[in-house]
Amino acid sequence: MTKITINTAPIEGQKPGTSGLRKKCRVFMTEHYLENFVQAIFDGIGGVQGKTLIVGGDGRFYNDKATEIILRMAAANGAGRAIAGQNGLLSTPAASHLIRSMKTDGGIILSASHNPGGIDEDFGIKYNMSNGGPAPESVTDAIFDVTKSIQEYHIFEGGSVDLSVIGATALGDMQIDIVDPVTAYVDLMQSLFDFPAIGKMIAGGTAIRFDAMNAITGPYASAIIEDLLGAAKGSVVHGTPLPDFGGMHPDPNPTWAHELMDEMMGPNAPAFGCASDGDGDRNMIVGPNCYVSPSDSLAVIAANATVAPGYASGLKGVARSMPTSAALDRVAEALGIACYETPTGWKFFGNLMDDGRVSLCGEESFGTGSDHVREKDGVWAVLMWLNIMAVTGKSVPEIMQDHWAKFGRNYYSRHDFEAIESDKADAMITALRGALAGLKGQSFGAMTVETADDYSYLDPVDGSTSAHQGVRVVFEGGARFVVRLSGTGTSGATLRLYVEKLDLKDFDQDPQEALADVLKAAHTIIQIEGFSGRTAPDVIT
Ligand code: VG1
Ligand code: CO
Questions:
Q1: Is 342 a pocket residue for ligand 1 (Cβ < 6 Å)?
Q2: What number does the ligand 1 atom closest to the CA of 19 have?
């Protein structure tokens, strides 16, 4: 076994997006591609000499090979110890937990999350800091800078790394610990939630369907929902992580989790349905005939979190991404706690949690989580909902009705227009930004613009600024839309249009109908059809 140094050259386009670097798997498999980026991470964080790192991923195609390459490079770069999930597997929240609980220096997570997997689909990699959270922009910028000038990388050749055997081994001077990916995470969940109460509810006949979408949460959900909480075998469906997710698109929304939706909207629906994404950090919650919008799920959790033992003393504060609905703000106001607004992407929540300002965060994109880790956490959200149901004795539809009756209903929807040609999408956003200053006071059908701006975030903890985080247009009366381009896609551009309108009286409308005026105004203002030729979205959540 020898440490070797390989000459390389910068590869264009290795700029991390909303959540790490995501490209087609075949791109990652081209010569030096992964290696360049991993060396850039190591150099960008000031080297890994003597450091301890967590490594693992969501099990998609290339996860195992990439894990081995990272271990070989970590050893060659002088890392002291690496802790990897067995077979290279770790859900994103479980990786975050290990980084924190094992007091490591950080970790590398291999995932393209909700993007499809397989040799012809997507792969991704991101670096998380010692707090367990995604690297902030200052660090991803430093990593990107290294990719632009990289000339060599270091790697161990020869010897073998067996990821399948739990226990300690070594690569050169670096110790490697292969750990069970599930155990520590399960312990953490048991410390937060009332397992006996949830188990009792399940024993009393509350049926559950957990759709793991052939991605990473299967083993976690089986261990917790079936083995510990006693749900019937088979409650977890698509529970085996597969390299191509069995062809499923592991995005837990009504479009991609349509099997679950069919079941939940059908005559024999279980009392509780949920789905997770590829790397286990997102969740969708569904009751019988009752789809819970992620923004509402976040607000419900905020309003009821104290029923869970881990949150019994109350929430310090809450935070949501800017495009997420203001349902959370209404709860925060009632609770008398602060509600922060951040740009899209979990990396912006870390500072607020580390600073003790917030304990619950969420995004409209099916991501909810708390300061138990520094990532969003799908299984956590599912257990929180089950805990709320167990303690309140209410069904999902009852929880929603009661919530709206108390706080009003923020009708909300996101429309995604996928694979638009990048130059057309860029032209659309540029034109929109140019038009913002003149929008105030203009009317579009029933809607009159009150304010319009390009969202910029000033981090209250470290003083950093992130500009151009989404255009938002607020109408008189408070309805609004937000529009931005996705930072996680791998082909063309995805336009995300978020619309919202508060209703204090009528809670039973179809959200698309309730939002029709706002949608119409948004289409006119953005000129979606004119720029992209698209009239209808590909995905509606
Ligand atoms: C999307 C979501 C965002 C989320 C991000 C990563 O980003 O909108 O809310 O944080 O994915 O989630 P974008 O830039 O495509 O809108 V995950 O589950 O992919 O780590
Ligand atoms: Co994810």
A1: no
A2: 6
* 382 and 420 part of one domain: no
DSSP 193: S
pLDDT tens-digit readout, 65-105 = 999 999 999 999 999 999 999 999 999 999 999 999 999 99
Mean pLDDT of 362-387: 97
Quote the distance between the C-alpha of residue 160 and its chain's center: 33
Q: 90 C-alpha vs ligand 2 centroid, how far in Å?
A: 12
Whether pTM > 0.85 for this model: the answer is yes
Provide the residue range defining the domain that includes 496: 409-540
Pocket of ligand 1, candidates 15, 18, 137, 413: which has the most ligand atoms within 8 Å of its Cβ, to mutate? 18
Q: Check pocket membership of 415 for ligand 1, CB cut-off 6 A.
A: no
Mean pLDDT of 257-281: 96
Instruction: Please give the tally of structural domains in the chain.
Output: 3
Q: Domain check: are 394 and 485 in the same one?
A: no
Residue among 96, 113, 235, 297 flagged as catalytic: 113
Instruction: Report how far residue 222's alpha carbon sits from residue 39's, in angstroms, rounded to the nearest whole number.
Output: 36
- For residue 321, give the ligand nearest its CA: 1
Checking if the pLDDT of 35 tops 80, the result is yes
Q: Measuring CA to CA, how many Å separate 251 from each of 5, 65, 357, 402? A: 39, 24, 30, 28
Does the annotation mark 113 as catalytic? yes
> Percent helix, strand, coil in the chain (nearest 5)?
35, 25, 40
Q: Per residue in 163-213, pLDDT tens?
A: 999 999 999 999 999 999 999 999 999 999 999 999 999 999 999 999 999
**Same domain? 129 vs 114:** yes
Pairing type for strands 208-211 and 272-276 reads parallel
H/E run at residue 287:
strand 283-287
Confidence of residue 414 (pLDDT cuts 50, 70, 90): very high
Question: Are residue 462 and residue 497 in the same domain, yes or no?
Answer: yes
Please, what is the Cα angle at 148 between 142 and 30, to 5 degrees?
Answer: 115
pLDDT of 307: 97
